[in-house]
Amino acid sequence: MTSLKDVHPIALAELRKKFSLNLVTLKHPLPERPIRTLGLVKTDADVFSSDKFSRVVCMRLDLPVYLAVRSIFLRPKMEFDLPVFSCETVLMGKKRMFIVDIHRTGEDTGHDDSALFDRLIAIRDRYPELLKEKTAPGGKIQSVFSRAACQVKIREGLDEQAISLFKKYLGVFSEIVEKAAPLSGEALDKAKRAFEGYLKTVVDHDPGVKGYKVLFGEKSGVQRALNIFFDC
Prior knowledge:
Largest sheet: 7 strands, antiparallel
Strand order of the largest sheet: 1-2-3-4-5-6-7
Number of strands: 7
Radius of gyration: 17 Å
CATH topology: oxygen-dependent coproporphyrinogen oxidase
């Protein structure tokens, strides 16, 4: 049976069907074992870029207990002014928290993504068993997610359904990225300003960035997160 723990190789295999991915050299090489955790926590990731993507990130966090985290973050290059793709899987024994979404900074961005979200919701609604126990991170970061986000708590037996939904969302996103044409001039400047607001929300409120602050300290944690996920 396919496990959500294997979502990274599944994602990369799907992406490589359409994009040529190049490994990125980070400012702080991975894997790392933060001193603050006495080396008990290991952070690792595969980070790529391409002609369409600024970042393709497959992040792994393994704790010395039964908890593991698998994160995926796909950010197209700024000049395409596209949403980002994110997926977060927290594995706790046979329990999982699974989140997948394609979003901008929430839905109040000046873009009309209603057709995209309607398409994703139609896909999501084909998995009623997967949607029985919904969840949400809460707080300010919740404003970033789209109305098409799938945010659920499931058990191991639903891993294959979750992966099936993940692959369909990823397929829609890859199609959008493939067709995108670059912006220039004022349109590009507007996209950059919108991204700066999004980035501030993420730095201030995203649970993953907060985790990096805990592991590496406020300044160093933010620096690492920005370099890994945003090419900053």
